[in-house]
Amino acid sequence: MKKEEIAGFIFAFIAYTLKIYRIHFHTYFIVAAIIYLLGLYIYMVATRKIEMDSFFIGLSSTFFLIWLLFLTKFFPMGIIPMSFSLLSLVVGVYFKFRNKSTLADGRQWINLVILILCIVIFRMPNDQRYYFTGIKYNYEIESDYMTWTKYSWFLYQEGKYVQALSASERALSIANQMNDEFWIEKIIDQQEKIQSRNWTKY
């Protein structure tokens, strides 16, 4: 595994850590890491610095990172990067068997770790996933009423109406402290929808 690849995955790891802690502009860092890895693998295979099996395994890991971005940002159509990542993995394994290459190299281990992480997060209910990626390690959570309102939405979707109302109350308390009239009215409206079980759109 080349040092440029290692640097790219370290960059991606740092970028996703910033996401967990809700550091500003974390999405830009994640996208930059993904673009770097995609460009790197295309360059290396075009200049024949890596074999086809290594190219497709690396490409699969990069698509898994894209899928992870979709999962943690709740983007729709996550099945697209997931499909590309799995297809690339299958092709990469095929080339490994055809070339009789070792399966236990660094690229394979990185691919496996990212795949497991994606599966774990994918299987989380939306409210738990949002709590983990948006609240648990959020260093601004004591003043971040918008995150609390979004969390109440995910709780409501899971049928956890009492917890949804509690999260909304937390958001309202912070919004009152911040004297944000727009969000105060919005949160009160959301609470009425929670109580009437009529909250259909965030």
Task: Kindly describe this structure.
- With 202 residues, the chain is mainly α.
- It has two domains: 121 residues; 68 residues.
- The protein contains nine helices and no strands.
- The relative contact order is 0.09.
- The model has no long low-confidence stretch (mean pLDDT 94).
How is the secondary structure organized here?
Elements: H1 3-20, H2 26-46, H3 52-73, H4 79-99, H5 106-123, H6 126-135, H7 145-157, H8 161-178, H9 181-195
Helix pairs in contact: 1-2, 2-3, 3-4, 3-5, 6-7, 7-8, 8-9
Low-confidence stretches: none
Going by helix content, strand content and strand pairing, the class is: mainly alpha
The level of helicity is over 70%
Distance between the termini: 45 Å
Q: How big is the Rg?
A: 21 Å
Mean pLDDT over the full residue set: 94
The structural domain count equals: 2
Measured by DSSP, the beta-strand proportion falls in under 5%
List the main descriptive attributes of the protein structure presented here.
202 residues, mainly alpha, 2 domains, 9 helices, 77% helix, 0% strand, elongated
Compact overview of the structure:
With 202 residues, this protein is mostly helical. The chain has helices spanning 3-20, 26-46, 52-73, 79-99, 106-123, 126-135, 145-157, 161-178, 181-195.
